[in-house]
Design goal:
Distance between the termini: 24 Å
Helix content: 25-40%
CATH class of the largest domain: Alpha Beta
Mean pLDDT: 83
Number of helices: 14
Structural class: alpha/beta
Shape: globular
Strand content: 15-25%
Oligomer: single chain
Strand order of the largest sheet: 2-9-7-3-6-4-5
Radius of gyration: 20 Å
Number of strands: 15
Low-confidence stretches: 1-33
Largest sheet: 7 strands, mixed
């Protein structure tokens, strides 16, 4: 589901197998496919395309504009940058709330807003790779627009040290004197989302049984962390809205946005009937379900490597290869152990992700050093 930051290693399984970003919790509906528009096009579920002026007009009446994403899809982030540009150009004063940054890093975001931290320094000052892990360059256009339009940027998520301890030990792992850093009550998901989260947990178990089960990471804790994340983001967002009295654009993974679940349901329970406009990515194929969001934008699914992997014994183990994928074409096999990418030892899944992203940007093969039956092979994987 992509619901846990970088330091929970298996999040990046989805980067090489499926689209991540708190990925879609519900399968697409069965209607006939519709012809995809140009990437970045904004439209309603009935296919009517919206221009910038109409989107700005609809957004002006909202307290929150929730925009879903897959974290590793550059097209999604370009669209989010367009959202910021469009609303700012329409003289709509907005706030920008981010799932990708904890509220505890707000002083750094304020320093960026005030010009005391340069954009080139921001990812290091935030500890971006330690907390979030997805390539900062994907998000850079959003921060560029925030700097250009002088828009306050707000961190909404749970501090890393707290979430890490909760993931390992549950809420009982947080001492009473630190509970004030968390919401007073964690709001559980609606029944429809609860069922989907449970299904997602079992998919995690299927892909990463050793990590999931040996760590004691059961379905109840999985649900609790998802609920904490959504509740925390809604709680912090409402605090800033009440203080600054401006509409807020919230950027978050699609699983936190779609079907009015996730952040939206918590906003409604914590606030006084805030108005919410939800915007979700659509990847093509079946027409989007009108219940999934108010508006949709078209961004195609980026090509993936096509590996199912797990992190065990401090190594990346290939557990499956998608037929017809770039990984199969390159000759990778289940049972392979990935030991280096482009000559960089793979000491974490993030290194594999970062080297893959760099190879794609530079349009060159990703060179994987593979341990197979006691032999070391170097296998080039073509870039999409």
């Amino acid at each position: 589901m992509g619901l846990i930051p970088r330091w929970v290693q298996p999040i990046l399984l989805a980067l090489v197998l499926i689209s991540t970003g708190c990925a879609r919790l519900f399968p697409p509906p069965p209607p006939d496919p519709i012809m995809p528009p140009q990437p970045g096009t904004l439209f309603q579920a009935d296919g009517r395309i919206l221009d910038a002026a109409e989107f700005a007009k609809r957004s002006a009446a909202q307290d929150f504009i929730l925009v879903g994403e897959s974290h590793a899809n550059a097209c999604d982030h370009q669209f989010q940058a367009w959202v910021v540009d469009t609303l700012a150009d329409a003289d709509l004063p907005i706030l920008l709330g981010l799932e990708m940054v904890p509220w505890s890093a707000q002083s750094t975001l304020d320093a960026f807003h005030n010009g005391d931290v340069a954009l080139d320094e921001l990812q290091y000052e935030l500890g971006w790779e330690t907390y979030w892990g997805f390539d900062f360059s994907l998000y850079r256009p959003i921060f560029e627009r925030a700097e250009q339009w002088n828009i306050p940027v707000l961190g909404l998520n749970v501090p890393r040290n707290l979430l890490k301890r909760i993931r390992a030990d549950g809420l009982q792992g947080i001492p009473d004197d630190e509970r004030g850093a968390l919401p007073m009550a964690i709001i559980l998901p609606p029944d429809q989302q609860l069922e989907a989260i449970e299904e997602e947990f079992h998919r995690h178990v299927d892909r990463m049984p050793d990590f999931t089960l040996e760590a004691g990471f059961d379905v109840d804790r999985f649900i609790m962390i998802q609920s904490l994340w959504d509740t925390q983001m809604a709680h912090v967002a409402l605090q800033h809205l009440n203080q600054k009295q401006r509409p807020m654009v919230i950027l978050a993974g699609s699983g936190h946005v779609e079907y009015g679940h996730g952040v939206a349901s918590r906003l409604l329970q914590l606030g006084h009937e805030p108005s919410i406009l939800s915007v979700m990515p659509w990847r093509g194929g079946p027409a989007p379900n009108p219940a999934a969001a108010d508006l949709f934008f078209y961004c195609p699914e980026p090509q993936r490597l096509g590996l199912a992997i797990t992190w065990a014994d401090d190594q990346v183990h290939v557990t499956g290869v998608v037929p017809g994928s770039r990984a199969e074409d390159a000759g990778l096999l289940p049972g392979d152990i990935l030991i280096a990418a482009n000559g960089v030892p793979i000491t974490s899944l993030e290194i594999l992700h970062q080297q893959g992203m760099q190879a794609t940007r530079e349009q060159r093969p990703l060179l994987l050093d593979v341990l197979r039956n006691g032999d070391t092979l170097t296998i080039p994987v073509t870039s999409p």
